[in-house]
Amino acid sequence: MEVRKIFKAGNSCVVSLPGNLLKSLGIREGSHVSIEVNRENRELILKPVVVKNNDMSLDFVRLVDKLLVDYDYTMRRLSE
């Protein structure tokens, strides 16, 4: 396990990721990742966004990610 520090950049908070880790996952600057939140375990899960065979556009993937983040609280309440 590697410990990283969260720091402020503009109006956001960011965390740097080691280059060797990114390379091993095939991720580089400009790549897109999805962020999942497991509130029960207090975990953030980053996953590379991979569009296979052009089945869906990257714009669609971005839109779905944004909707999941924007409506996370509502969807969580609906599932109870």
Concise summary:
The chain has 80 residues and is an alpha+beta fold. Helices cover 34% and strands 25% of the residues.
Number of helices: 3
Tell me the fraction of residues in β-strands, as a range. Answer: 25-35%
Largest sheet at a glance?
Answer: 2 strands, antiparallel
Which sequence of strands runs across the widest sheet? 1-2
Helix share of residues? 25-40%
> Over all CA atoms, what is the radius of gyration?
15 Å
Structural class from helices and strands? alpha+beta
Shape: globular
CATH fold field value: Pemi-like Protein 1, Chain: D
**Arithmetic mean pLDDT:** 84
Report on this structure:
The protein has 80 residues and is α+β, with helices and mostly antiparallel strands. It has one domain: Pemi-like Protein 1, Chain: D (Ribbon), CATH 2.10.260.10. Helices cover 34% and strands 25% of the residues. It contains three helices and four strands; from the N terminus they run ββαββαα. It has helices spanning 19-25, 58-70, 72-78, and strands at residues 6-9, 12-15, 33-38, 43-48. The strands form two sheets. A two-stranded antiparallel sheet has the order 1-2. Strand 1 and strand 2 (12-15) form a beta hairpin. The N and C termini lie far apart (33 Å).
Please render the helix and strand layout as text.
Blueprint: E1 6-9, E2 12-15, H1 19-25, E3 33-38, E4 43-48, H2 58-70, H3 72-78
Antiparallel strand pairs: 1-2, 3-4
Which terms summarize this structure?
3 helices; 80 residues; single chain; alpha+beta; two-stranded antiparallel ribbon; Pemi-like Protein 1, Chain: D
